[in-house]
Design goal:
This protein folds into three domains: about 1-95, Immunoglobulins (Immunoglobulin-like); about 100-225, Beta Complex (Ferric Hydroxamate Uptake Protein, Chain A, domain 1); about 225-780, Maltoporin, Chain A (Beta Barrel). The protein is built from six helices and 45 strands.
Length: about 775
């Protein structure tokens, strides 16, 4: 009986093995050079793998005929039919794509797995799954260590993101290598780029200091965006979506394809409208993207224009605890035109040249024009608050204006061989901007005052010059080193008075040296270990100067990571220690336009562990979990409480949750249908740096939300190439949560002039309960 069992076991094993074959091979370019880490996907069964450092791969499959989809950045994707009837070896050659030249736009500020920097990539295909009108910060919400929010609560209008506890003002953002952060505030205003995700080819989020980039230093992360690549073929696309809170998005895209193999013209026009979750917190966003390209084998020239006009109703200030309990959707502002109105246009010219197999270069030019105002009703205002343009105690309507111009020139060169990747670059930007306020109506104007007289004015100038050299080079077959040296030289000037009728007179120079070093060790084709040390310096922003802060901040960033890449599992794990000197931390308070107020904290740190994975459970199921655990502390923090400076010891850094968890569970029974369940948990956040020394009003409770995303695509035989239906149910379990707020302290002198008791207050930004978006995209 035992012999029979053994025989049956061997027979079944042989039978099973007879039904499977191993297809191995190599992915190469046109010159038969290997393409390391190329992606191989077996269509229909959704099984895949990645080539090793020599371009080799191996797949075990059941006998049959398959289509291998092979892709590699900078090369045309190939669909090759493979007849898997026996063990076999094949070679698949990829041809270069003009996308390779597109990638030069961002090559100076991007990294790959060979460089010791912690990062995440997001492709156009991944973005499209949930691109129904919400802004880029909301679409990035499920990346590691990211927390997203919006003023109106529905992800449209003024939106924000933080990474590792660092807010918008500390995240460097570039578009095609051009700085996008506002030169003065350092903020990133996505409201001016409505539906920009629809013109994004891919993006990379680097956490920590990252690699040297253009513009203000990265103190929590850097986000670089590559806009649409050249389309080989002509196409048209119409997208419409509708949803809760009267939300709607209308987008038209087109491309001529390559005319005579050299010229392409493409564009997009979008209109997004939403009433917002918060009462009357509407957003009306109009935007465009236009691109003209010339390309040949070694040259790419792109002329790009994009921008938008936004009109949003005031929801910069949240609700008190009592208002939140009474009606979390209420808006305390009643003036019908309490709106923000802004137009911003960007004009870019890029020339990418591949000189030979080793050398390439990129020249980028940019001009940005921005102008707009915020209109506000002032009730029984003090005359001095409007520079005595009104009679004291009367009503007035004011507009607070920004009018600015921003010029940038970037130039990068890249020398690349099998063992060395060397990039050098320079960047220069010049900013000029006017800040002024005007009275457009007054119940009782002061004598000799005219409508639209200005009650404050200041001009500003900022120049920013940087140069860098970075190299990644092989020390051995398994060990590579990375060095990155950057010098950055900033001059900022402003003169006049602020909207608080306080003089502002600044003329400061900042000279920064930002070195970065690291090593990457590849123990085998699946495992990659890295470590790095980086230094970043950052100048104060305009708001800092207004409150008397003029000291720059310095960050020392230590990273240690492990990357695993197998056929079914991609795992990234890293530990970081971010050590700050004079970190400009958020106090919790906000100014008159909702911008956060910061103060120097002395010494502080962020220590954390990040884990993210992409696991293929079967041909139909996959999960993408991520987790971030951190400790974020001020060292020996000092604050004035009850009129006395007190050393509070080590306190919690504001708006820095210790736990952030995310997951995307996807079921894809066939190529045309996909359903994803997305979950996010964010732990408690402190809205001040006092660690509840006064009260517990400075704590935001943890929250857990889940979304459901469904995508279904039809491919009709006539008229349309494809019809794609998309559904997104946000906050499916109807959680009532607050993900952002503000906190302030004040001395109780109004009730008792002799009192030095410190009191506090808080505001909260409620986010939408269950809501939905439905969309359809017609491609032809």
């Amino acid at each position: 009986m035992k012999k029979i069992s053994i025989f049956l076991f061997l027979f079944v094993s042989m039978l099973a093995n007879a039904q499977t074959v191993t297809i191995s091979g190599k992915i190469v370019d046109e010159n038969n050079e290997p393409l390391p880490n190329a992606s191989i996907l077996v269509q229909k069964i959704n099984k895949g793998t990645s080539a090793d450092n020599e371009g080799k791969f191996s797949l075990t499959l059941s006998k049959g005929t398959y289509v291998f989809q092979v892709s590699f950045i900078g090369y045309k994707t190939v669909n090759q039919e493979v007849n898997a009837t026996k063990n076999d070896e094949i070679t698949i050659a990829l041809k270069t794509n003009q996308t390779l030249l597109d990638e030069v736009l961002v090559s100076a500020v991007r990294v790959n797995a060979d460089i010791p920097v912690t990062f995440s990539n997001l492709s156009k295909k991944e973005i499209a799954k949930r691109n129904l009108g919400q802004d880029i910060p909301i679409l990035l919400n499920y990346l590691p260590s990211v927390v997203s929010s919006s003023d109106a609560g529905a992800g449209i209008g003024y939106t924000y993101m933080s990474v590792r506890g660092s807010n918008n003002e500390r995240i460097n953002v570039t578009v095609n290598g051009i700085p996008y952060n506002d030169a003065e505030s350092h903020g990133t205003f996505w409201v001016n780029l409505g539906d920009f995700a629809s013109s994004t080819e891919n993006l990379q989020l680097q956490r920590g200091v990252g690699t040297s980039t253009n513009g203000a230093g990265a103190f929590g992360a850097s986000l670089n965006i590559l806009t649409d690549a050249i389309s080989e073929k002509a196409f048209g696309e119409i997208s419409n979506s509708f949803g809760s809170f009267n939300t709607r998005k209308h987008t038209v895209k087109f491309s001529t394809g390559k005319i005579n193999d050299n010229i392409e013209i493409a564009g997009r026009f979008s209109n997004i409208y939403s009433d917002g979750y918060v009462d009357r917190a509407f957003s009306d966003l109009k935007s465009y993207f236009l691109q003209a390209s010339f390309v040949d084998e070694n040259t790419l020239i792109k002329a790009i224009a994009f921008g938008g006009n936004e009109r949003t109703y005031q929801s910069w200030f949240g609700l008190t605890a009592d208002e939140l309990a009474e009606n979390r959707r209420q808006n305390p502002y009643t003036y019908e035109n309490e709106t923000d109105n802004y137009q911003q246009d960007h004009y870019q010219l890029h020339w990418n040249e591949k000189w030979n197999e080793q050398w390439s270069s990129n020249l980028g030019l940019n001009y940005t024009k921005g102008a707009g105002y915020f209109e506000q009703f002032k009730e029984t205002e003090d005359a001095t608050a409007l520079n005595n343009l009104i009679v004291d105690g009367t009503n007035a309507i004011v507009r607070r204006w920004l009018d600015n111009d921003f010029y940038v020139i970037n130039f990068n060169t890249n020398y690349k061989t099998d063992k060395l990747n060397f990039i050098t670059g320079i960047s220069y930007s010049n900013y000029t901007g006017d800040h002024f306020g005007e009275v457009i109506w007054g119940e009782n104007l002061a004598p000799n005052t005219q409508i639209r007289d200005r009650y404050y004015f200041s001009d500003a100038k900022k120049s920013d010059f940087s140069l860098f050299a970075k190299a990644n080079f092989s020390l051995s077959e398994k060990l590579s080193a990375y060095a990155d040296l950057q010098g950055r030289f900033v001059n900022y000037q402003t003169q006049g008075i602020t909207n608080d009728i306080v003089p502002i007179d600044v003329n400061r120079n900042f000279n920064f040296f930002n070195p970065k070093f690291g090593f990457t060790y590849k123990s085998n084709e699946n495992n990659n270990f890295y470590t790095s040390f980086a230094v970043a310096n950052r100048e104060p922003n305009r708001n800092d100067f207004e409150v008397g802060v003029s000291t720059h901040e310095t960050l020392f960033d230590y990273e240690l990571g492990w990357r695993l890449n197998t056929e079914n599992i991609k795992l990234n794990t890293n530990v970081y220690f971010m050590d700050y000197k004079n970190q400009l931390v958020l106090t919790g308070a906000i100014d008159g336009v909702g911008a956060p107020i910061r103060a120097t904290s002395g010494k502080s740190y962020r220590l954390g562990l990040e884990i993210d994975a992409d696991i293929q459970l079967s041909n139909q199921f996959s999960i993408k979990p991520n987790a971030a655990f951190s400790s974020n502390k001020n060292r020996d923090f000092v604050s004035e409480i009850d009129g006395v400076l007190q050393n509070l010891g080590n306190t919690n850094l504001s708006f820095s949750p210790n736990v952030i968890l995310g997951n995307i569970f996807t079921y894809q029974p066939k190529e045309a249908f996909q359903i994803s369940f997305l979950s996010k948990f964010v732990g408690n956040q402190w809205m001040s740096n006092l660690s509840s020394s006064i009260s517990e009003n400075d704590v935001l409770d943890s929250f857990f939300t889940s979304d459901l995303n469904v995508v279904y695509q039809l491919k009709p035989s006539k008229i349309f190439k494809s019809v794609t239906f998309t559904a997104l149910i946000n906050n499916i379990f109807n959680a009532e949560y607050v993900d952002r707020g503000y906190y302030y302290t004040f001395d109780d002198t109004w009730s008792n002039p002799n009192s030095v008791t410190t009191l506090d207050g808080a505001g909260y930004y409620p986010q939408a309960t269950r809501n939905f978006l439905l969309g359809v995209t017609l491609s032809f």
